[in-house]
Amino acid sequence: MNLHEFQAKQLFRAAGIPVPKGEVVDTPSGAVEAARRLGGQQWMVKAQIHAGARMEAGGIRRFNDLEELQRFAQEMLGERLITTENSPSGQPVNQLLIELSCGVKNCYHLSVMLDPHSGQVVFQGGLSECRDSAELGDQSPGELFQVEVDPVVGLQHFQSRQLAVELRLNRTIWLPFFEITQALYRLFVAKDLLLIEIGSLVENDRGQMMVLDVRVQVDDNALVRQPELAQWADRRQDENQVLGDGLGFIAMEGDIGCIVNGSGLALATLDIIQLNGGSVANIVEVDNGADADALANACRLVWDNGRCSHILVNIVGGIVRCDKVAAGIIDGIQKYNIECPIVVRMEGTRAEEAKALFMQSNEKVEIVKTLDDAVISLIGTPAS
């Protein structure tokens, strides 16, 4: 599960890791009020989405004028920000983080992650591109080093010193850097994290260490013992990941939305559509635990506010009951006013009852017997 930047920084503050003063807002007027409360002369305004490369996409900007800040907030809130790291349809910007801007003397990259092969926590670091290239010497921003931490003994002080040496830190900031690395390790373990990626660990113009930008991922399997973090989930953002409630979502670039059960069937459906000249917009995978609300939500996700010209429902019932899937999809069609043609192919457990439900619903649904028939209906060419 991904966290927003403002949520990650909330964890950092509680752990004693220095971050800039900031407030999260959801209105343009709130952005101006937050900037005034923070004081200062310059503010960073950051779109809160679960993706990187926000600055390149125009989602992070610096302002020294409150009127310009408010105009930017008005333009950004409610829009979908498309970056190089999210889906072609982007992700919704529902909140902005307003922070005091600070001068940067040196900038570094530092990540903490779990190595699935060794089972050890790994610190990975390097010089960041925000640092003056003239100061890089023979080490380019792309070169990284790493330190492996034995989970039995935890991060040792000599390893923190090794990180400091590799990053070429000034000795005057070694002590605060050691405190940051120790706090990062404790936080990583205590909160069941999978990733802490600090894109900008900076030495500011006052000689202080500070985290300006961070991404955090939490282990989904550990949310049962992290109830506070579980409440922070923003499902509007993670529509390209496992959504919970028995749904998984993959965003693509075509115009045919697909609702399927099972990853194998999803791949087969994708292949046969593309083989015959069609293009898939997205795929919602339904598993055995999906309830009626989740199935209705599957319709909303796959329709994507009208981006799909057709929807294909391809279900092979086993443990999952076809009539249960049909009832949820009919509810979703009616609840979200889905208007595009829907082609349904269902086989297996209670498939006949499912087809009867579709027939009785009077919705714009075409029922076919085979996947070949579905492709003909969707694309107009026979499947090979």
Query: What oligomeric state is this?
Result: single chain
Task: Tell me about the largest β-sheet.
Answer: 7 strands, mixed
The total beta strand count reads 18
CATH topology of the largest domain: Rossmann fold
For this entry, give a set of tags.
single chain; 384 residues; alpha+beta; Dna Ligase, domain 1; D-amino Acid Aminotransferase, Chain A, domain 1; Rossmann fold; 3 domains; seven-stranded mixed beta sheet; five-stranded antiparallel beta sheet; 11 helices; 18 strands; 28% strand
Describe the overall structure:
- This protein has 384 residues and is of the alpha+beta class.
- The chain has three domains: 20-101, ATP-grasp fold, A domain (Dna Ligase, domain 1), CATH 3.30.1490.20; 103-238, D-amino Acid Aminotransferase, Chain A, domain 1 (2-Layer Sandwich), CATH 3.30.470; 242-379, Rossmann fold.
- It is built from eleven helices and 18 strands.
- The protein has helices at residues 5-15, 28-38, 66-76, 157-166, 174-190, 227-230, 263-275, 292-303, 322-335, 351-361, 371-379, and strands at 22-25, 43-47, 60-63, 80-81, 91-92, 96-100, 104-114, 121-127, 145-149, 193-204, 209-218, 242-244, 247-251, 256-260, 280-286, 310-317, 342-348, 365-368.
- The strands form four sheets. Strands 12-13-15-14-16-17-18 form a seven-stranded mixed beta sheet, with helices on both faces.
- Helix 9 packs parallel to helix 10 (351-361).
- It is elongated and about 75 Å long.
- The two termini are 40 Å apart.
- The relative contact order is 0.10.
